[in-house]
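ok trying this again, last paste got cut off
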Amino acid sequence: MKKFLLLFIGLTIMQFGSAQPTNLTTDLLEHTDRVFLDGYISNVSLEDINVARTVIERYQTAQIRSDKPRLGWVVNGDKPNTRQTAYRILMASSTEILAKDEGNIWDSGKTDSDNSVSILYAGKPLESSKTYFWKVKTWDNYGVESVWSQPKGFITATTLDGKTARYPLQISEQTPVKMQPISNTLTFIDFGKAAFGTVKLTLSSQKDTDSSTIRLGESVKNGRIDRQPGGTIRFAEYKLPLIKGTHTYTVKIRPDKRNTSQSANESGVIAILMPDYTGEVMPFRYCEVESAEAPKSAVRRMVHYPFDNSAATFHSSDDILNQIWELCKYSIIATSFTGVYIDGDRERIPYEGDAYINQLCHYSTDREYSLARHSIEHLLKYPTWPTDEMLAMIPVVWNDYLYTGNSAILEQYYELLTAKTLSGLRETNGLISTRTGKVTPEFCATINYKGKRIADLVDWPQAGGFGAVGESDGFVFTDYNTVVNALYYENMRLISLIAKALNKTDDEIKFAKEADNVKRQFNALLLDKKKNIYRDGIDTEHSALHSNMFAQEYGLPPAKSAASVAEFIRSRKMACSVYGAQHLLDAVYRYGDADYGLELMTSTTDRSWFNMIRVGSTITLEAWDNKYKPNQDWNHAWGAAPANIIPRWLMGIQPLEAGFKRVRIQPQPSSLRHAEMSLPTVRGTIHVAFDNTPDGVFALEISIPANMTAEVVLPVQDPWHYNLTVKGTSLKPTKRKGKNLILEAGSGTTRYTVEGMRRD
């Protein structure tokens, strides 16, 4: 009887298949079948707007702009080490045809492949302004055939130009956390967090000649909205004429000349404008209503890019770290209001270096990639003036490929990307310079630059700018800038990897040799051999934090100098801006100094993320404090570095192969007793949790989604004397690297316990 039951269960699994594929994406967009009505997600279907023509409202959709979109899905399976071995895709012109398991547009047939993140469409030519529907089934390494996925629809754009498809902006309505009467005629309203949007109010009036005064602001002073907050912290006041009776009113936000100007700045770029269906917005948390009668209700209409707030979670035993995570995560959704990565509210202009931080944070907090990819395309066409910012473009593009597995941008823009390394500025000594006459109109044309100048920046603001003391740690500018050339080295290393990904072998070898040469010359010309730290340039003896942290971030110091560089970095503390803090933390954690990394993130000084919370902001600031940048704004995503540092370094989750086909999990806990995280990826969600006891016992539990493998790196005090158990069984790994044990893991949940853990 028992054998018969087991046979029946086995046959049932074979008949009905394993768990169906989920989270279907078309050009990395999952919700291509949803229709928005002026920013609100609606019940309207694609058939309603494309076939039945029943929609009279103004609507927006995510339109696919490629005639050969890339399809993806999440593979599911309860068995350990589940891998996809084959798939079959059906695409049809209607749901009725697809329901018959027929694909009149494309039937891929059973295709042997483990790829589930970037399948290039290969069916009949797609037409513009048409709706298509598709579904997929998979086979796994256990021989199990899945059931068909739920169908997914998408609509194509009027022009199929191959550009990034993206969602419309979304409007979320939010009610106050507090409505407090200040007097008989004044009500103070707190929405809990700042957001970009406008406000709707329901007010009553006894006569048509009444009016109300509405004040909106980001900061408070003595229990009231601060009307003179300084810098670019926002405050606005509006007069609202009322109508007799009870009515609902909306406040029209006045455009700011600075962030809506269509005059090109020194880079030749202009501000990003809001679409007509959302209207103009401003950042505010607080609202004051001065009226004869208190408001019946207040609603904030927040504008943002679609975001799944539950996709990524983090919690630890350190309450300050938890608050900083929430601050930085929220900053990503709050600053997405234009649908492009911008530098903040003051200018609303995209910059490459800002986008680098914004992208890493976004990819660490949501399974959403289109906003970053659209920003990449914008920045490739409209680069900005600082050399440092330009050199962030290649890391941004490479990160996108690592996180998505989608090579479309690499393929489409490869020639431009090779120019974006700025190798055209290379001098005979192997380093690049903007001061030796190579910034010519011809060079600028190769990188699409239309601005007035190109110059090195290092950090912002520089000394004297806006009355600030400066954030570049006294960096001395010379013809050959150490920070810029560290970035140049990383560009050459990454462009070689890009060439490899595109099977351009000759270019791969050429660029790898150039990277090696840059590293050799960098150390020969810029490393102070007596102090074993880096100087700011060839013609100066000064050593700034930035010269050393950028070198350490990219692995440039020779083995004999690495400790000296790390010691110097520690000695300079947080002598950089919130932008520089991204690179400082990358350098610190890359070196393995987890104690210092945790200390920096949980600091409570005035140069800390906790200080941003303390001064009253709920979005990361442009600078550590007003005194460091008097004209700063309170809504800069470039200050949100912990949103990616916590997942990538503290929890240690980083892709090793494109599209998270293979991942490394290497926590650096330091003294943190407990932490747990859920990280969304293109292949599904990774869960990592650890307990770190004072007696040196380290317990790590990981859950890896199907069709992914992991390299797990565990710290020990002595790599030859420890006790390791995996799923309750003692184990001696054969792979070690320094004081780390290296193990392999497939999909499923695995628990590791190490006695004799290394104290970082």
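PB: full thing came through this time. The first helix runs from residue 2 to 16.
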